[in-house]
Amino acid sequence: MAKNNKNQDYELENVENALSTSEAFIEKYKKEISYVLGGIILIAVIILAFKSWYIAPREAEAQEKIAICQEVFAKDSFQLALNGDGEDIIGFEAIAKDYKFTKTAKLASLYAGICYFQMSDYENAVKFLDKFNLSSVNVSPATIGLIGDCYVEMKEYEKAAKFFKKASKEDNELTAPFYLKKLGVVYEELGKYDEAIEAYTTIKDQYFKSLQAADIDKYIERANLKK
C-alpha cells in the first residue's frame, strides 16, 4: 500500500511539474498565442462570411441558370446548351467559368464536357471533364469512362486504358464489365494481348451474367490468336 501511495505521489508530482511548465510557457508567450488564436478565429470568420454572403447567393443564381441549360441539353441541343443564346440561356461553359467555387460550376463543367464530346471536340471535352472532381468518391464510372472514350477518339490509347481501368474498378454489375471490355479492346490496339485477355477473362469469371459476357469467348480467342 505504501508503495502504491509512493507511485501516486510521484505521478502527481510529474503532473504538477508539467502543468507548471505549461503555465510558464503560456505566460511567456501569451502575446504570441493570442495573436495566433486571434488569427485562427479571424480566418474562420472570413471563411464563414465568404460562404454565407458570397457563395450561397452565387450558388442559388447558378442553379437557376443551369436549370434552363439542362432543359436544352435534354433535347440534344448541345451547341445551345454549351454556349447559350446570348439572352436567356447563358450556357454550361459560361456557368463553369463565371460561378467558380460553387458546386453548380463543377456540374456545369461535367455537362460542358459531355456537350463537347457529342460535338466531337474531344480535346475540349477532356478539358472540362477534368475540371469535374474526379477524385470524389461520388463521381460515376461513366464520367471517368467518358474521358477514356475521348482518348480513344484521339487515338491516345495508353491514356484511354488508364481511365477505362479506373472506371472498371467499381464493383458494379452494370458498369464494371462494360469498361473492362473497352479496356480489353484498347489493350489489343496497344498490342498488350495478355492484358486484354486478363480483362476479358475477368468479365467471363466475375461478370458472367452481364451482356458483355455473352460473346466474350470470341474476344478472348481473338486476343490469343494475335499473340
Would you mind describing this structure in some detail?
- The protein has a domain at 133-227: Serine Threonine Protein Phosphatase 5, Tetratricopeptide repeat (Alpha Horseshoe).
- The chain is mostly helical and 227 residues long.
- Mean pLDDT is 84; it is low at 5-10.
- The chain starts with a helix and ends with a helix.
- It is built from 11 helices and no strands.
Low-confidence blocks of residues:
5-10
Strand content: under 5%
Rg value: 29 Å
Alpha plus pi helix count? 11
Order of helices and strands: HHHHHHHHHHH
Task: Characterize this entry briefly.
With 227 residues, this protein is mainly alpha-helical. It contains eleven helices and no strands. The longest helix is centred in the N-terminal third of the chain and has 45 residues, at 30-74.
Task: Describe this protein with a few key phrases.
single chain, Serine Threonine Protein Phosphatase 5, Tetratricopeptide repeat, 227 residues
Question: Which helices and strands occur, and which strands form pairs?
Answer:
Blueprint: H1 2-28, H2 30-74, H3 78-83, H4 92-98, H5 103-118, H6 122-131, H7 141-153, H8 157-168, H9 175-189, H10 193-206, H11 216-226
